[in-house]
Amino acid sequence: SSLRVVYAFAREMHPKTSEVFIQYGTAGFRTKANLLEHVVYRMGLLAVIRSRVKNGRTIGIMITASHNLEPDNGVKLIDPDGEMLEQSWEEIATRLANVSDNDLESTTEQVIKQVNADMSLKASVFIGMDTRYTSPRLAAAAVHGVIALKGTPKEFGIVTTPMLHYCVKCRNDNTYGTPTEEGYYEKIVGAFKNLRQKLPVFGEYNTTLYIDGANGVGGKKMNIIKKSLDGELDLNLYNLGGNGGKLNLNCGADFVKVSQKPPVGVEHVPFQRVASLDGDGDRLVYYYLDNDNKMNLLDGDRIATLLASYVTELLKACDAPALKLGLVQTAYANGASTRYITEDLKIPVTCVKTGVKHLHHAALSYDIGVYFEANGHGTVVYSNMAKNTISKVAEEGEPEQRKAAQLLLNFIDMTNETVGDAISDLFLVETVLCARGHNVQQWMSAYTDLPCRQLKVTVQDRNAISTADAERQCTSPEGLQTKIDDLVSKYKSGRSFVRPSGTEDVVRVYSEADTQENADKLAAEVAQAVF
Ligand code: NG1
Ligand code: ZN
């Protein structure tokens, strides 16, 4: 067949050089960058097939390993509505990534048959990448894959992961916005400026914001945004990738959250709020140092509660009682946050398995769903019913209701509903703090986190561990859960669970207890039990 030429080309240009099995996990394929070229080429092929199955709608390919260190890279596919690749295709992606060069042709044809793709249709694929030095080469491999099956690639160069999700969504649904980086700024930053006109700065809120850019793409984009701001925010940017700063090394949202330490490369002033982004700009946490230089972290749970409580307030002011708002978390959510949401905010909570696709999916079952992983990945999704109801109030309600509904409409516009987005989330947070006239300590005062600890353990086979009940219970190996229960029972406010990572070859251990010392001890004991 004519495809034969294609596969000969692939063998030469992007040969499979490794026998290591690779799996499409919670964040697509992720491993050492030098093992990925053939995988990305093949994802170019798969994206074309997927686009045709979706009647020629655009599919995205993002080259990134997010918060991982520089030597790693990764690739993930984005579905037409800007969502993560449909789960049933993960197995197909894995199969295609692992076949030998010799079997690539027959496997591709098998896949085309299996998914019933009409290969005569047009196909469109958007390709973006993060700032890693290995990314351009991988993006080129993706382009080759797309062209090989006669699809049309469009390269976006260096963009945040959420920007590419946004562009894919807009390309397939032009009511959402313009599918370009500029279109993204217009929508999100535009909505923020609009809100600032309606909500003048007051009280303890201060427009100075420090940003840790993780030496990645997010900081670079904030630098572009900074130039278009007009006093709405005064940004001090750090870790923008210059001065020998290494991507995600001792900085960025994941470092801050997991190590519970402030990043290097940021000038610290007591009580100054700092927003820390991750390497591809989809995660956000805040923190500040106090007078004793102690770090106070405001993580994804904290952002979720802030956004959910504010939207709830606006909904009340709109007098739209039919709209149900709910929150989605994972087992990593701090127990104190869950308690605060349920008992104080009286907002329903769902707990799901780790991985944004699970959170996103669960959030869609509410009229307005707020979802966040504790690590700072999350967003808000609004149903069409919610949007229509709010729009109607904005036009026809009583003056006070109209005002609240108009604020809410701007808030919706500022949200990147396709996926967690550090930049969009940052503007959401700044809006709520400004609306309430709150400084970072007032934000922090809502509830007190339980001390917690995250550890990773390297084991022979991480898949020997299986879990149930949103990963809070361990079903194998036999006896492990009983051991964990025993250890936990010795600690006041103790909680702990283990699960195999979907992005690294490790088992993650999480623990909480009444003191940091106890949380650390419990984590160490559970890690010992796993090992
Ligand atoms: P794994 O490696 O499966 O724990 C990590 C994060 C996830 C998610 C993915 C994708 C934790 C504990 N886990 O997954 O929440 O963000 O990376 O980046 O933070
Ligand atoms: Zn990320």
In this structure, how is the largest beta sheet organized? Answer: 5 strands, mixed
Trace the largest sheet across and list its strands.
Answer: 1-3-2-4-5
Name the hetero compounds present.
2-acetamido-2-deoxy-1-O-phosphono-alpha-D-galactopyranose, zinc ion
Quote the beta fraction.
15-25%
What is the molecular shape?
A: globular
Number of strands: 19
Classification by helices and strands: alpha/beta
Please report the number of helical segments: 18
Oligomer: single chain
Could you give the distance between the termini? 52 Å
Helix content: 40-55%
* Global mean pLDDT: 96
Instruction: Give me the Rg, rounded.
Output: 23 Å
> Can you tell me the residue ranges where pLDDT is under 50 for at least 5 consecutive residues?
none
